[in-house]
Amino acid sequence: MKSGREKAATALLGLGLGFALSRIGFASWDEVHAMFTFKELRLTLAFAVGVAVLVPIWIAFSRTTGAAFSPRRIHQGTLAGGVLFGIGWALSGACPSIAFVQIGEGQLGALATLAGIFGGNWLYASLQERWLRWPQESCSGDV
Fold this sequence. Notes:
Blueprint: H1 4-24, H2 29-36, H3 42-65, H4 78-92, H5 96-105, H6 110-132
Helix pairs in contact: 1-5, 5-6
């Protein structure tokens, strides 16, 4: 259970990240569209800088804590899930975290995006339970 101080720090970090994503332009459908159609590479470069900064930090973290990356087999739903995620992102201009940034900016259309996110999760759970029955592996790789 997190302490009040940890919750406050997490909330401040989330607000800071949301503010940064808003200022960069990730909450703008036009900006995201320009990135996906390669008309504007600013957001693509922002992704690249994020990766360039985080990879060495992750390597240092894994070396100091002993947490290592362990490759896992690809889950059966990865391809379908990735395609649906991409279609949703292209149509709405937002991934799940950006929908919250858009709400913070007052973009009420993000409520429809959130409804789609929650509806898609509900639909997947229903399909999984009734027909798919794919293994429900955890992120830790435990089977």
